[in-house]
Specification:
heterodimer, A: 107 residues, mainly beta, globular, B: mainly beta, 7-stranded mixed sheet, 4-stranded antiparallel sheet
């Protein structure tokens, strides 16, 4: 099984800060990585697919990059509505696997 | 739009069937998934079924106990859960994949809560 290691598990930043989250796959997954945002009590929402493609309607302050085993997700200017937990997920092979999540809070 | 139902409180060893209604898109063109989330925990992929229903895959944690199926004439996805355990307690989400089985999940239901407890 492909293990997805996400870091940090939580972070606290100020409004307007640049926030970066990392996700590492235990083996090469090419570009087959997505990022999801989950606010409390809600279903996850797709933000990024194929490692760097922004889903339609997602604000441009969200971006991501990477390939192979190392991936990065960035919020260029943190907004209050970005308070959520973010998950990476690989879909290179079954079983599909998620990272452990990163909880983003406002400082 | 995806609408799950069927979550309930069930005793260990019991069974439950979850449903996910999928109006509003060409259901038969998409692979579908079940994903669960235990309280305060990360997302865990549970099962996947191809668009035709001919292929299905399971997480090791549910293999042999859960069965995924779909009715493309009714636009409904199912998850039959047998031999339930306390560790199956979670919110269960259905999620739309793509025309191929390995695909990002672009639409999610609101979730249905399953509690396994005596």
């Amino acid at each position: 099984d492909i293990q997805m290691t996400q870091s940090p598990s939580s972070l606290s930043a100020s409004v307007g800060d640049r926030v970066t989250i990392s996700c590492q796959a235990s083996q090469d997954i090419s570009k087959y990585l997505s990022w999801y945002q989950q606010t409390p009590g809600k279903a996850p929402k797709l933000l990024i697919y194929d490692a760097s493609n922004l889903e339609t309607g997602v604000p441009s302050r969200f971006s991501a990059s990477g390939s192979g085993t190392h991936f990065t997700f960035t919020i260029s200017s943190l907004q209050p509505e970005d308070i959520a937990t973010y998950f990476c997920q690989q879909y290179d092979d079954v079983p599909l696997t998620f990272g452990g999540g990163t909880k983003v809070q406002i400082k | 739009q995806l609408l799950e139902s069927g979550g309930a409180l069930v005793q260990p060893g019991g069974s439950l069937r979850l449903s996910c209604a999928a109006p509003g898109f060409s259901f038969s063109n998409y692979a579908m998934n079940w994903v669960r989330q235990a309280p305060g925990k990360a997302l865990e992929w549970v099962s996947l079924i191809s668009s035709s229903g001919g292929d299905s895959y399971y997480a090791d944690s549910v293999q042999g106990r859960f069965t995924i199926s779909r009715d493309n004439s009714k636009n409904i996805l199912y998850l039959q859960m047998n031999s339930l355990r306390a560790e199956d307690t979670a919110t269960y989400y259905c999620a739309r994949g793509g025309p191929v089985i390995l695909h990002q999940f672009d639409h999610w239901g609101q979730g249905t809560l399953v509690i396994v407890s005596s």
